[in-house]
């Protein structure tokens, strides 16, 4: 599971906020994906390479019931290269 | 489109339901740069051939690119006509990349030289799609024109040699190439390309050849089974959602995105609900009047398309949730009501309506830029259907066609 304080949005990725969440586009892989909630968008925006994943989730208001679902979503974002480690 | 939905956190509706209400900007925007084309494909959905004197000039086009950037439209699908025949095509491509608008452009490949291929391979922002409608020259050239198979193969070889990866081979599925799906896949694999299959539409000149070219019912089943088997490895531009009524949904969004997540800007700046619906009935406005952003957000046509749809005669069908009634453009151009079944409804629900249609009442095209004279690379399968571009005598066919 994603943890630590060095995660951030990959430099080749852009977000476009939409009423449901956001569109995510990676210019290097030309791959489009979606953030399906506004809260997930909020979490992702808080990952600035210096904020703990857990702290970002708490600050965005992710509750215990939703916790695992959000962690899985973040894992997938890392696996597809949307999130990367700072200076890695 | 290449799209994946992330594992759904709790309390989330289906993305499809969100998309049907529309987005702040399109996900998938097609921009046809010119009606000019060096070819005269029988099934051209934009009835292209001759340039329109009112086409957007270089400055208009650049202003539109800047508007795309402001709207965060990440990439556009550029087509035509044949976009590379515009003298400013490569300039506009560079301009789009500088403005963070990625481009995937469709081309017949005639102008994808070694030098161009190397430039294209040098940036991540550009993707190329070579049109190929037969896995053999015989099948391809009958629809696309003499020498077009060889030209496409040469372009593919140039792209591969330049180190370009994941470029696309785009195939319109017809009655004559459904048996070639494995061969198309093999061609794509051999060039390191990705195969993209799309549906033939009765749009533009496609209406003239629809009866001869659209896949027969058993071929639709064949296509569906092939897509289920080959799944994520093949792109479809979401164009086969009408086949979802066979059972399992196909990979992709499975919805009609017209005016909701998709639209078309044509060479003169007219905005249409989708690339297959170039007709006054589906024209939302022109970018020169109010700007693209305004047309996208406020055009009455788009607001209508984003309002809840009733499903009409299809609502009582058990498959409605899967196919959503099929393709709006396919219905319109075959003379069927928009709230009824698709002409290729896999349940056969359109057969009765199609049989009782007065063919003289079909809507036809509201624009036609087809060549009026002879074309060097004219389709060679003249038995496929009447074409306005057939050579008037054997001498009109260039003896060197396809050699360059």
Describe the structure in your own words.
With 88 residues, chain A is α+β, with helices and mostly antiparallel strands. Chain A has a single domain, classed as Outer Surface Protein A, domain 3. In chain A, 34% of the residues lie in helices and 26% in strands. Chain A contains three helices and five strands; from the N terminus they run ββββαααβ. In chain A, the strands form two sheets. Chain A has a three-stranded antiparallel β-sheet with strand order 2-3-4, covered by helices on one side. Chain A has a two-stranded antiparallel sheet with strand order 1-5. In chain A, helix 1 crosses helix 2. The longest helix of chain A is centred in the last third of the chain and has 13 residues. Chain A is globular and about 35 Å long. Chain B has 404 residues and is α/β, with parallel strands linked by helices. In chain B, 31% of the residues lie in helices and 12% in strands. Chain B contains 15 helices and ten strands. Chain B has a nine-stranded mixed β-sheet. In chain B, strand 6, helix 7 and strand 7 form a beta-alpha-beta unit. The chains are: A alpha+beta (88), B alpha/beta (404). At the A-B interface, strand 2, strand 4 and helix 3 of A face strand 1 of B. Strand 4 of chain A pairs parallel with strand 1 of chain B.
Largest protein interface?
Answer: A-B, 30 and 30 residues
Oligomer: heterodimer
- Strand element count of chain B: 10
Main sheet: strands, sense, barrel of chain A: 3 strands, antiparallel
Indicate the radius of gyration of chain A in whole angstroms. 12 Å
Global mean pLDDT of chain B: 89
Overall shape of chain A? globular
Strand order of the largest sheet of chain B: 7-6-5-4-3-2-8-9-10
**Number of beta-strand segments of chain A:** 5
Instruction: Specify the helix fraction band of chain B.
Output: 25-40%
Uncertain runs of chain A are none
H/I helix tally of chain B: 15
Gyration radius from CA atoms of chain B, angstroms:
20 Å
Distance between the terminal alpha carbons of chain B, to the nearest Å?
33 Å
Query: Quick one: biggest sheet of chain B?
Result: 9 strands, mixed
Q: Helix content range of the residues of chain A, please?
A: 25-40%
Mean pLDDT of chain A: 91
Classified by CATH, the class of chain A is Alpha Beta
